[in-house]
Write a structure and sequence with these properties.
By secondary structure, the protein is α+β, with helices and mostly antiparallel strands. The protein has 4 domains: about 60 residues, Winged helix-like DNA-binding domain superfamily/Winged helix DNA-binding domain (Arc Repressor Mutant, subunit A, Orthogonal Bundle); about 60 residues, no CATH class; about 90 residues, SH3 type barrels (Roll); about 90 residues, Alpha-Beta Plaits. The protein contains 11 helices and 12 strands. The strands form 3 sheets. It has a 5-stranded antiparallel sheet with strand order 7-6-5-4-8. Helix 4 runs antiparallel to helix 6. It is globular.
Length: about 325
C-alpha cells in the first residue's frame, strides 16, 4: 500500500500549490478535496490557509454546505489574463488532451485544442510545444460526439445546481424513459463516461427514495433539459462511494481471494484494484490477491479475462457460479 501522504513535498510547496489553486480557479474547494490534492492532512490544509491569511493578508472565504467546509479566493478586479501557462504546463496539457481524445468526443476535443492553441500564442519566442509525441490506442471506445451538448448541459446543471429532466435509454429497456435527476459528478471508467446523480422528485408525483443513487452512462442519454428547480446536493464523497472496492456497480461489499500465475501475476501486481488490497507472493510467477468488491458480475468478467492464469478461491458461492459459466462457455465451443 502507498504511504498516505507525500513525505517529500515541502511545506512551502504545499503552500504555493494551495495558493495557486485558490487564486487561479476562483472556485470553492472542499477541505477534503484540498487535502487530497496536496496529499496532506486536513489539519495541514487549515494551517496553510491560516498562514496565507496572516502572512499575505489574502481574504480566503470560508463557507459551509451541509457538514463540509469550502474555501475560495474571490477573483479581484485586477485581470489575470496576462498570466500565461509555462512550456512545461502546456506540454502536460498536450499529453492529457491526446490521452483523452477518444473519451471526450470530437467537439469537446476541438474545444480543448482551441484553448491550448490560445495559450501557445503567449509563449515566449523560441519555445515550442508539439503534440506529435502523444496519442492513444482506441479500439472498443465510444464516440461521444453526439453527446457534446448533453455533456455541456450536465456541467451547466451541476454548476447551477438545477434539477434535470433526462431522457435515458437503459440497456435492458425497449424504449427511452424520462427521469428527474440531480446531477452530482461526471467521471470516467474503462474508457466510458458516467454520471453519478441523485433521484429528484418528479413534478406532480410523490417522491419514492431509491435503494441506490442512479448511475447513468452518458452515451445512453438521449436528451437533457434543465428545469427551473434548484437543489442542494446531499453529502457526497466520490472517493468514499466509488474508490473503496472493486467494481462500478455498488452493492454489498464482499471479500475476494484469487490466485494468479504466469503473466497475470505480474500484470495484477503492478496495479491497484482496491485500496485495501493485499498481494502475497507465492514463489516465482505466482501471487495471492485479497481485496474487496461490490460487483459480482464485474468480478466474474474480470476473472474470465485472465483465462487459466486466474483461480478464484473465495467467496465459495461465486466459485460455483464461475464454474457454471466456464462449463457453459466450453459447451458453446463444443
Amino acid at each position: 500500500m502507498p504511504e498516505k501522504y507525500d513525505p517529500y513535498k515541502s511545506y512551502g510547496e504545499k503552500l504555493i500549490g494551495l495558493f495557486a489553486r485558490l487564486l487561479f480557479s476562483g472556485e470553492s474547494h472542499s477541505l477534503t478535496d484540498l487535502a487530497r490534492m496536496l496529499d496532506c492532512s486536513k489539519q495541514t490544509v487549515l494551517r496553510l490557509i491560516d498562514n496565507i491569511r496572516k502572512a499575505y493578508g489574502v481574504n480566503i472565504e470560508e463557507t459551509k454546505q451541509g457538514n463540509r467546509n469550502y474555501y475560495r479566493i474571490r477573483k479581484s478586479i485586477v485581470s489575470l489574463q496576462n498570466i500565461s501557462l509555462t512550456e512545461a504546463e502546456l506540454k502536460s496539457l498536450q499529453l492529457c488532451k491526446a490521452f483523452t481524445r477518444h473519451l471526450v468526443g470530437k467537439k469537446l476535443y476541438e474545444e480543448a485544442t482551441q484553448a491550448i492553441l490560445k495559450s501557445k500564442a503567449s509563449l515566449a519566442a523560441g519555445y515550442q510545444v508539439g503534440e506529435c509525441h502523444f496519442t492513444a490506442f482506441r479500439p472498443g471506445t465510444i464516440d461521444y460526439t453526439p453527446q457534446h451538448q448533453i455533456i455541456h448541459a450536465l456541467i451547466d446543471a451541476m454548476e447551477k445546481q438545477q434539477v434535470c429532466k433526462l431522457t435515458y435509454q437503459s440497456v435492458n429497456s425497449p424504449k427511452p424513459k424520462k427521469h428527474y435527476i440531480k446531477p452530482i459528478k461526471l467521471f470516467s471508467y474503462h474508457d466510458a463516461i458516467y454520471l453519478h446523480a441523485q433521484r429528484a422528485k418528479e413534478p406532480g408525483k410523490p417522491y419514492v427514495a431509491p435503494k441506490y443513487d442512479p448511475l447513468l452512462a452518458v452515451h445512453r442519454m438521449k436528451a437533457v433539459e434543465l428545469t427551473d428547480i434548484k437543489f442542494q446536493p446531499g453529502k457526497f464523497d466520490f472517493e468514499k462511494a466509488y474508490n473503496q472496492q472493486f467494481g462500478i456497480i455498488k452493492a454489498k461489499a464482499f471479500d475476494v481471494e484469487v490466485v494468479f500465475t504466469g503473466w497475470a501475476a505480474a500484470y495484477v501486481s503492478e496495479r491497484m484494484w482496491s485500496p485495501n488490497q493485499k498481494i502475497i507472493p507465492r514463489g516465482k510467477n505466482k501471487i495471492i490477491l485479497r481485496f474487496t468488491s461490490s460487483s459480482e458480475p464485474e468480478l466474474i468478467s474480470w476473472l474470465l479475462s485472465f483465462g487459466e492464469e486466474a483461480k478464484l478461491i473465495h467467496p465459495e458461492s461465486l466459485v460455483k457460479e464461475l464454474k457454471s459459466k466456464i462449463m457453459k462457455l466450453a459447451e458453446s465451443y463444443s
